[in-house]
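WARN retry 2 of 3 for item q-0093 after timeout on previous attempt; input resubmitted unchanged.
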Amino acid sequence: MKKKSLAIVSAIVMTASLLAGCGASGSADKAASTAATQAAADTQAADTQAADTQAADTEAAAQAESASADEATQVSGEVTAAGSSALLPLVQAAAEKFMDTNPDCTVTVNGGGSGEGLKQVADGSIDIGNSDVFAEEKLDADAAAKLVDHEVATITMAPVVNKDLGVTNLTTDQLVSIFTGKTTNWKEVGGPDEAIVLVTRPSSSGTRALFKTWALNGAEEASNEALETDDSGTLLQTVEQNKGAIGYVALSYLVNNADVQAVSIDDVEPSLENTYNGTYKVWGYEHMYTNGEGSDAAKAFIDYITGDKFADSVESMGYGVASKMSEDAVNSHKSN
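OK item q-0093 returned
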C-alpha cells in the first residue's frame, strides 16, 4: 500500500516538474504543489485506515479466541453447598456470577450452620460444607480427616445492639458478663435502665464457636431458647425491634446496615482494617470443605470464589482477604 501511494506522489511531482520546464506559469507550479500535498495527505489517510483495519481484525480475532477458550473451559453439572450463615452471602453472590459464565452448571447454596454443613459434606449429601471453624471442632477425628479444607476468606464478628440503646463500646469483661448472664441490666455497664435481652445462637453455629473463643475468652454463652437463631437476618431484625437486645453477626451483614449499632470491644472498632492489623481479635477463617478432592464442578466453583475475577467482591461485601492479614494478626490466633 505504501509503495503504491509513493509511486502516485512521485508521478504527480514529475508531472508538475515537466509543466514548469515547458514554461508553465507560477500558478501551474502552485497547482502542482497543492496536488502533491493532497496526494500525500490521501496516502497518510489510506495508511491509517489500513492500520485501523488491521488492528480491528486483530482485536476481533483475539476476542473470538478468548470466547472460544471460555466456551471450552465452561463447567457443567451440579454443585450443592450448605452450612455457615456468616459465609452464606459471599457464596450466594459467587454462585450467581459463576452460573452466569457457566450456564450448564447449577450451584445451590443453603445455610443451616457450620456444624450442619460439615455433617452433610462428611456424609456425602452435599458437595461443599461451609464453615466458620475447622472441621475438627465439629466432627470426630475420623470424619474430619476425610475432608479437604479450602480457606476462602476471613470473617470478622461484631457484637450488635439496638441503635437507640446508646451503647457503642464494651470491655471484654463486660461482654463476658453479659453473654454468660451475670449482667442483666444495661445500667450495670453504663447504659440506660433497660433489661438485657440476649439473642443467642444454637450450639451447631460456627459463628457462636468463633465468638465464644475470641470475644468471650472461651466462656460458655447463656442460653435463650426463646430468641435463639442461626439466621443472621432474623437476629438483626430481633435486635432492631428490641431496645435491650444484644447479639452478634458477621461484619458482612453490617455493610450498608444502619438498623443496628455495631459495638467496639475495648475501644477497638470491628472493621476490616483493625482485623488486618491485628488490633481487633474477633475473627476467623472461612472454610469450604469437600469430601476428598470433590467433584470437578465443586473444585471449579471454589477456584472461582478464590480467584482474581471475584476478588473485588470479597472486601466490598465485608469479608477479609487472607493474604492481607498482618503477621501480628495471624500469630495472635495461632497462640490460642
